Amino acid sequence: MIERMDSALRPFLQQLSRREFLKQSGVSLIGLLSLPWTAKGLRPGMILDPQGNILPLGRVTTSKIDGYAQPSFEAELKKSYWQDLVLNITGIVLGGTDSGHNRVWYLIDDECFVHSGDIQPVEIRLNAPQMDIPANGLLSEVTVPFTDAPWEYKKANRLAYRLYYGTTHWISSAIQAEDGQIWYRIDDDKWKVKYYVRAEHLRIVPAEDIAPISANLPWEAKRMEIRLPEQVVIAYENESPVFMARTATGARFRDGDYTTPTGSYMTNRKRPSRHMAAGDLADANSYDLPGVPWVCYLMENGISFHGTFWHNNFGRPRSHGCVNLSIQDARWVFRWTYPSATLDTVTLIEKAGTMVTVIDKPLGE
User: Fold this and answer.
1) pTM for the model
2) At 126, is the secondary structure helix, strand, or coil?
């Protein structure tokens, strides 16, 4: 396993020096000091992406997390980490019962433990820019922990958004600046504005990434369940379960009850990328999330399956009604459910789709 890790990490280590990434993405120096620039100390059980690549890095998704001497919130506090710092994950363990529903902890730099719920597994992977962008655009995904997107590529300090690992974005054109830097232009699908991203931070999504799964089955042979008490999603083929994933469905907040409604729905509307936003951004329950990936809508009010990059704490309700999944799991649902999507369609709408039932009774009842 260690040998496989070394092989998987080597391309990342050869592509990028500390100074180069600092220059190209604006990562803080403190965050860079946490990056694993050698494979020494990596352990079996590290996080894998869908292609089997190891993701030994973790981005802090919340304003602050604490590191403890043991995998427990009751252990000695050793240090704190701030939002968007990129940490070196050197091990994964199960914590005690005080960890809550999610008992997974990450060992950071072989010195302290942080709870996994507020750590997004990420990588650093640069990409060769593509200058020839077709008229209908190209779908891309972010392959670095984050990248800052300015309103104008000539004024890179005027930032529109920070885009995060695994988010997806439609590229409308490629532009080479006077200094040689290549930028992709993104036309925002919600606010109808445009901003720019360094081209090497985005990977053009190939067709095989969204190739349909079990496409030979008739539509009625597939169905899904969202089980609210267990916070899991289960997919069935001919009544046999073929997939299960932890989820985070709608929760109750101080401003209202956003519990995911029970009932039967279908995935007849899809978007591989969607800017989701709601509320006054001064309110704690508001959100403004560009590039939410692999969206399969269930209801007319926007409730959907989708990938989630702002937390890693699946297994308890915490959304505004949507069915939060990891980006990997959301991509699987996007590929498996009907209707099948292609890369040249921004929004896919059909009359029929895969049936999905939201259930509020525990398994076995």
Assistant:
1) 0.85
2) coil
